[in-house]
Amino acid sequence: MRARLAAFLTVLLLAGCGQLPGPDEPTDPTPAATATGSDGPDGTDTPEEFASDIKSAQTVAEQYWGQVFKRQGQRFQPVREVIPYEREGEVDCGRDPLPRNNAAYCSAGDFIAYDVNWAFGVFGQIGDAFIYYLLGHEYAHGIQARLGIQKEFTIQQELQADCMAGAFIGDSARARQLTLDKGDTDELARGLESVGDDPGQPWFAEGSHGTADQRINAFANGYQDSLKACDL
Known about the structure:
Layout: H1 8-14, H2 47-71, E1 81-85, E2 92-93, E3 96-97, E4 103-106, E5 111-115, H3 116-125, H4 129-147, H5 154-174, H6 185-194, H7 212-225
Parallel strand pairs: 1-5
Antiparallel strand pairs: 2-3, 4-5
């Protein structure tokens, strides 16, 4: 199992968890079915490698949360399915069609779904480490559903999921279930900044996820202090 997440927390702490360099301007994603030959930042250029990383991230997440629930004397039920889709409306959640350029956990069907072309584009532009964050974040929403957690505001739900994703990656690395390699700090920093809300987004608005700094801090807190930092 591979996750390329070298010294992420150390760099964040040295940087004071402040503003980090943003990603290059996004380009149109290459459809996974037709992708060929253009190496990503760390050689991530094939649909096969992308599919392998998605599956590995899912497997490690299931192992991690299974162990967490077992320590609490509770039975763990994995998220039912992880579904790739290509077109808007191809997958719906409680009769609401999922849009393009998106990944989401659907509590109505207990599944994670993601736009495969968009995710493959991120994979090629930013790197494979971000795939582990993406899956970890959505899996965290599945855990929130299992624990009956429903925050008052969307941003609270999302930042808690970022913290839980950080705990998943940090704890798995410390347990040697994930291997830390050189070069992934920039991948995760760029990726987390790319999913931050636009400046001026009201924090209490429906759909708010948090600024880049808030999301980086939430992830780093979970990475360093495990789930105790996540207000579960």
